[in-house]
């Protein structure tokens, strides 16, 4: 929340006002009034992002992923210690997403709804970068800066390794469509 006496709030207000006015082009003459340039309106982009069925698939996958995450966090609460639950959920989510990319993108016949349902919706809601950051800040706040750094490093490198391993294993699996 911005405080009225915060200098950053003045900067934010000035930036919002400038953005609302639009781009200004100067002709180089000091006495000339600036000319405003209006951007040409682009036609709406075609594609599945405007299809309400794709949005519904993302929403359904998101609800399922969020409910699973909430259930896991309820069963295995983090408390004030190391955030093992979030670490395991994020690593598993990276592995699941890698499997989905190979299985859905490379092995199954094309579908409009499976990737948004499982990849964007389910895995997007299951995993969370923001919770990882909040837990790392909490660790630092409680005097465990080294543990926080290790947590971030293990999360990022573990996610990359899990993804690489599952991508390789899924591509070698003898599946048929």
Q: What does this entry look like structurally?
A:
The protein has 177 residues and is an all-alpha fold. The chain has a domain at 50-172. The chain has six helices and two strands; from the N terminus they run αββααααα. The chain has a two-stranded antiparallel sheet. α3 (84-107) runs antiparallel to α4 (114-126) and α3 runs parallel beside α6 (145-172). The longest helix has 28 residues, at 145-172. The N and C termini lie far apart (52 Å). The model has no long low-confidence stretch (mean pLDDT 81).
Number of helices in the DSSP assignment: 6
Mean pLDDT: 81
Low-confidence stretches: none
Outline, from the CA principal axes? extended
Terminal CA distance: 52 Å
The string of secondary-structure elements, in order, is: HEEHHHHH
In percent, how much strand structure appears in the residues?
A: under 5%
Report the count of strand segments.
Answer: 2
Biggest beta sheet attributes: 2 strands, antiparallel
Rg, Cα atoms, Å: 23 Å
Secondary structure category: mainly alpha
Strand ordering within the main sheet: 1-2
Percent range of helical residues: 55-70%
């Amino acid at each position: 929340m911005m405080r009225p006496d915060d200098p950053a709030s003045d900067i934010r207000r000035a930036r919002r006002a400038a953005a609302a006015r639009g781009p200004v082009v100067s002709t180089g003459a000091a006495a000339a009034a600036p000319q405003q340039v209006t951007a040409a309106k682009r036609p709406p982009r075609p594609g599945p992002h405007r299809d309400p069925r794709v949005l519904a698939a993302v929403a359904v996958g998101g609800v399922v992923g969020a409910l699973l995450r909430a259930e896991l966090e309820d069963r295995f609460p983090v408390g004030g210690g190391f955030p093992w639950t979030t670490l395991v959920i994020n690593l598993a989510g990276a592995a699941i997403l890698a499997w989905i990319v190979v299985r859905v993108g490379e092995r199954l016949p094309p579908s409009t709804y499976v990737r948004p349902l499982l990849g964007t919706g389910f895995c997007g809601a299951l995993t969370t970068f923001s919770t990882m950051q909040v837990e790392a800040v909490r660790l630092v706040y409680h005097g465990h800066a080294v543990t926080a750094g290790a947590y971030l490093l293990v999360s990022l490198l573990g996610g990359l390794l899990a993804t690489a391993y599952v991508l390789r294993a899924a591509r070698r699996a003898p599946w048929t469509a």
